[in-house]
Amino acid sequence: MRRGVARLALVCGLVAAGGAAAAPPVFKDADTRAWWAITAHLSSDAMEGRDTGSPGHARAARWVAGRFAAAGLKPAGTQGYLQPIALHEVKVEPEGTSFSVWRGDRSSTPLRFLHQISVRATEALPATLEAPMSFRGYCSGAEMGADMRGKIAICFGGRRKGVPGGGERVEAAAAAGAVGVIAIDDPGFTLEPARWPDAYARSVGFKGAAAPAHGDMPVMRASPSAFETLIEGSGRKAADILALGAASQPLPSFDLPGTLHARFKLSTRDYDSDNVLGLLPGTDPALAHEVIVVSAHLDGYGFGEPVGGDGLYNGAFDDAAYVATVIRLAEQRADKGFTRPVLFAAFTGEEKGLLGATAFTRAPTVPKGDLAADLNLDQLRPLFPLKILTVHAVDDTTLGDTVRAVATARGVAVRKDLEPERGLLQRADHWPFLKIGVPATGFVFGYDPGTQAESRYREWYQTRYHRPQDDLTQPFEPQAARDFNSFFYALTQAVADGPARPTFNPGSPLAPK
């Protein structure tokens, strides 16, 4: 929303449809009005998209810490309310990075970086890459064959069950002696279509962590339009191959007539980025060692490649709105408390690989054995009435029964994830808790296929997810936001005041071994 820093009172009253300002949203209660004001502040241009390690993120972290303090939470970080996480960043700089396809007649066709092709950022990337290319279907080990040494493997980037994933493609290419991999977007994966441009080509990890496997191999992603350029002159039709892949049909293998020429310019830097943590002690000393975590992620994308002339990725519903929910819960319950302690967490680095939550679960600021559950807020978009909730790990822990009871009382149906191919369970901050054996869950606004709710959901992912358009001017339903926040407040109370500590259900594949 980099169109000048709007006045808070103005942006709080803007909801746009089709790019035009609509009537201000009507908030029927003070809590939802306060929730939106916090959302507006955290996702305003002044916070610069809260990119991990950025000045905007640091300002947002200090502001959230101030709200936690004003609510009466106790500092629960390693430095007051803050838990700094030491990170290392590698960035492929747009200036100085280029891609082009050269042919035998010495003609060349450029591929536009971040708009048609991108590359995994690793410190071991070579300065240049010049190699012939070969299309190898889905890039399984069997498809690689014995003649890939010194070539770039072009792969159909399928995301369906039964085809190799990204890591498997890289392993197969490396084993065959390939010098690079390009995965072509699957145009048939309509559950979450690939989109361009990418905001940037950056990787962020823990400072001192080991380099990724095969980090010296350029691992690239390309659009269907780039695929047409890559296979030009091969006698094959890109559309036909993509259609076969989209239908999970067998794919041909063939060498391409062109050579890929690429240059990579890298930059690196080290920095700290903060988790924000505040503790509300429990009212029952006997349950002091059963801490319930309520969490959302503070970070966003920050500045990136412009979309529609806007290069600031504000991150209003991903995830400023749900940091706001965590803050509002703290402000309403700090005086009353809960039976069990509740740790309020705004994690950093979620968009860079769940870094803040992972760092916390590796070195929690309360004893690890005291972590009883995590209720995480992400992937939530109040775009239509709340009638259905998709609940992650709903059948894996006793949290699922509590969720069902609270939701049913509000007329909300609870479902497990009907689109597991998207991997949403592993893509939000509840996942690091589940990995260390702590019951955890997260939520998605659900819908029935073919409904207007599904249409709104798909449109949001296509046009606003990880885009500058996820800003304060987007359309949403205040009543849906109110209903979810009310549900979440009640759920936290039911878990924190419940008769038993949450546990994994027998037979759950996520249960600690």
Please outline the helices and strands.
Layout: H1 8-11, E1 16-17, E2 20-21, H2 30-42, H3 55-71, E3 74-75, E4 82-92, E5 98-102, E6 108-111, E7 117-119, E8 128-136, H4 141-144, E9 152-157, H5 166-175, E10 180-185, E11 201-206, E12 219-222, H6 224-230, H7 238-246, E13 253-263, E14 266-280, E15 291-297, E16 302-307, E17 310-313, H8 316-333, E18 342-347, H9 355-362, E19 371-377, E20 388-391, H10 399-408, E21 413-415, H11 430-435, E22 440-441, E23 443-445, H12 452-463, H13 478-496
Parallel strand pairs: 8-9, 9-10, 10-12, 15-18, 15-19, 19-22, 20-21
Antiparallel strand pairs: 1-2, 3-14, 4-11, 4-14, 5-6, 5-13, 7-12, 8-13, 14-18, 16-17, 20-23
Helix pairs in contact: 2-8, 3-8, 10-13
If you had to describe this structure to a student in words, what would you say it looks like?
The protein is α/β, with parallel strands linked by helices. Strands 3, 4, 11, 14, 15, 18, 19 and 22 form an eight-stranded mixed beta sheet that branches. The chain has an eight-stranded mixed beta sheet with strand order 6-5-13-8-9-10-12-7. The chain has a three-stranded mixed beta sheet with strand order 21-20-23, covered by helices on one side. 27% of the residues lie in helices and 25% in strands. The chain has helices at 8-11, 30-42, 55-71, 141-144, 166-175, 224-230, 238-246, 316-333, 355-362, 399-408, 430-435, 452-463, 478-496; strands spanning 16-17, 20-21, 74-75, 82-92, 98-102, 108-111, 117-119, 128-136, 152-157, 180-185, 201-206, 219-222, 253-263, 266-280, 291-297, 302-307, 310-313, 342-347, 371-377, 388-391, 413-415, 440-441, 443-445.
